[in-house]
Design goal:
This protein is mostly helical. It is built from 18 helices and 2 strands. Strands 1-2 form a two-stranded antiparallel ribbon. Helix 5 packs across helix 7 and helix 16 (378-387) runs antiparallel to helix 18 (406-436).
Length: 447
Amino acid sequence: MRIEPADKWIIDPMRRFINNSTMSGIVLFSSALIAMILANSPWAEAYHHFWETKFSIGFGDFLINKSLHYWINDGLMAVFFFVVGLELKREIIAGELSNPRNAVLPLAAAVGGMVFPALIYLLFNGSGEASNGWGVPMATDIAFVLGVLYLFGDKVPITLKVFLTALAIADDIGAVLIIAFFYTSEINFTSLLVGAGFMAVLLTANRIGIRSTVFYGIIGIGGLWLAFLLSGVHATIAAVLAAFTIPASVKVSATYYSQQLKHFLEKFQAAKPHPAAMVTKEQFTILDNVKRVSRQALTPLQKLEHGMHPLVGFVIMPIFALSNAGVTLESDALDQLTSPVAIGIFLGLVVGKLVGVVLVSYILIRLKWATLPAGMNNIHLLGAGILTAIGFTMSLFITGLAFTEDKYILQAKLGVLAASLLCSVVGYFLIRYANAQKTAPASAVEY
């Protein structure tokens, strides 16, 4: 097999980088850092003004004219939530959340990691608009968490990654429900009914066997998402609902697929090769059949999830960070950081997440309702609790939904960024220390 220089030095390294999902956490962190630098540089005014640039979509009298910042938070982030929805469906059908025994610990830990931060926040902000921010410290940014774990390479137990991923998936379910029920503006029921109609079309298409991702994209975006955008219910909810309508079954069985591949391989080997560096018409037909049957052996859900992860991880999330993490630190930054909103979010993330995740997990393990995943020890669990306090993307997103006053938005962002930075560092050293300790006893079941 001939390896071209472009493949060896450019394409293959880029493919490995993009397919490494934890690298997205590194890119996300870099984007946030660039945003902070720009927001506190001589170009700060131009940086903030750029995101307020108006951008219109539509035609004739039907025109939606919003700022670039709005389209990022309600448009691009809908794509992010669409992928979250795909992950949720896969995990519930055939992933870690499909097995009650495996799911009980991360699910319970996720609930504890949402309830305690909200309660701590409300201790400092019990009334007024400030009280709306109780949902901000409840979220976990799995991309950042996996980015920290990536620094350890293969030294970190795989069960720890699985535990944190399952916990973050459950956390995402909570975040979606919170946005749907508590951070939704006045509802336009006409638009909502139109959205329900498009949802019915998508469900019917799934039921009768339509597998075209283009069809689901047109109806999901042009119909369901747009209807929800105009209804008052946050458009990201439409993205999650659309994801749940994507078919998750294969068209041909693994046995049939293997038989077909063997058949086509035999035909390809028997075909007379082209004298030049090309394939013959017969070989082309065989390869086309291999491609066709391979598509049938894949579920549209997994194909979409796999194909969209690089877009979300390396384009959408960094753009979101670039537009939302740029906090200009004024002379009163310390006062803003010690405000009730910032303190509530900071302690909600740092203390609430740690106590919620670790305490609930400890209780379940002591009651023998769950077991500590094999390969993990108690310090790994403590480190996991700290790492879940990295709220970043989701916390910043909910900040934009919770507050309308600029001062609260600034204070919330400061609290989120301070907590995420602190817990990234502390979590890293805790996991590093845990790796050096004796692992969990052999009696712990494989997670």
